[in-house]
Design goal:
Elements: H1 6-23, E1 27-37, E2 47-57, H2 62-70, E3 79-81, E4 84-87, H3 96-108
Antiparallel strand pairs: 1-2, 2-4, 3-4
Helix pairs in contact: 1-3
Enzyme class: transferase
Keywords: Pyridoxal phosphate, Transferase
Protein name: L-seryl-tRNA(Sec) selenium transferase (Part 1)
Length: about 110
């Protein structure tokens, strides 16, 4: 995951945004430049460029959306920033996009 290029991440982010835009009608979904952090080991402060998928729900708060996602099955951990829920495609394994879309659809429509 640490070796994925910025171009590959942007492509994954665009694909995820397109998938979520078709699934989540009551959310605004945008792409944002950002950074991924390795978070430990030999690279605790390293910042790697990424493209984030930002979700702005219209009917619930971002905090409420993040909480519902964490409590779901499977649990989904997201970032909260600037009144949005951020997803870093760097953290997704192949096939996770569809699982994520279903999880989001379930918690947004509650």
């Amino acid at each position: 995951m640490l070796s994925i290029t910025a171009a590959e991440l942007e492509k994954k982010a665009v694909e995820l945004k397109d998938l979520l835009t078709g699934t989540l009608k009551n959310c605004n979904i945008l792409l944002k430049p950002g950074v991924s952090r390795a978070g430990g080991g030999s690279l605790p402060l390293a910042e790697l460029p990424t493209t984030l998928v930002a979700i702005y729900p219209k009917e619930i708060s971002p905090v409420n959306l993040a909480e519902r996602l964490r409590q779901g099955d499977p649990p989904v951990v997201v970032r909260l920033q600037d009144e949005g829920v951020l997803i870093d495609p760097r953290t997704l394994l192949p096939g996770d996009e569809e699982v994520l879309a279903k999880a989001l659809q379930l918690v947004v429509s509650k």
